[in-house]
Amino acid sequence: MRVTVFGSAHPKPGDAGYQEAYQLGRLLAEKGHVVLNGGYVGTMEAVSRGTAEAGGHVIGVTCDDIEKWRNDKPNRWVHEVMHNTDLIGRISGLIRNCDAAIALSGGVGTLAEIALTWNMILLETIPVPCLLLVGESWHNVINAFYDEMPELVPDSVKGYIHFCPTIEDAVAELNNF
User: Fold this and answer.
1) What mean pLDDT is reported for the chain?
2) How many structural domains is the chain composed of?
3) Residue 119: is it exposed, middle or buried by C-beta count within 10 angstroms (0-12/13-18/19+)?
4) Residue 22: partners with Cβ closer than 8 Å, 6 or more residues away
5) Labelling 71: which of 42, 116, 143, 164 has CA 20 to 30 A away?
6) Can you give the residue range of the structural domain that contains 22?
7) Neighbouring C-alpha atoms within 13 Å toward the C-beta of 154
């Protein structure tokens, strides 16, 4: 299975978020999954490193926009690069080329990736069977959205997102799809 991992560019080696992403990469590789991610720093580097060190394959989905803005290149644990000219192409590449998506802690970019993945699943424009959000924070964010606009978010829409307390739960949940 090809699994896209979304998350923040901010975690650094030694941070809890970096270690969590590293361990997720290891777990996914040990289960034989190919891992896609944004290819650069933070969560992307950590999940790439964990996957590569466990013998798995990493696809970095990159773009000119980020490389110009942050003067970055793909991290050294990426085995294959899918390069795009812009951010929208990059996000689309992450979403359209996976069988499942997992979101770790993140900011505006991660929220945008979650929202677009969720909407594309609803529109049936992609065959992603599951969108797994790890941690209590995403549970709180999405529930606040549900609470604020209950008439606009029917139960059938809610069923496409699965909340997982831990990365171990998220990896186990992949087996259900």
Assistant:
1) 95
2) 1
3) middle
4) 46, 47, 49, 50
5) 116
6) 2-174
7) 2
Q: Phi and psi dihedrals of 16, rounded to 5?
A: -60, -40
CB atoms inside a 10 Å sphere around CB 44 = 30
Q: Does residue 29 register a pLDDT over 80?
A: yes
Bridge partners (DSSP) of residue 130 are: 100
| Per-residue pLDDT, 128 | 66
Which tens digits make up the pLDDT trace of 86-131?
Answer: 999 999 999 999 999 999 999 999 999 999 999 999 888 988 668 9
Q: What is the mean pLDDT of residues 14-19?
A: 97
State how far Cα 148 lies from the chain centre: 25
> Is 60 within 8 Å of 83 (Cβ atoms)?
no
Beta strands at 80-84 and 100-103: parallel, antiparallel or unpaired: unpaired
H or E element that contains 130 = strand 130-134
Read off the CATH number of the domain in which 11 is found.
3.40.50.450
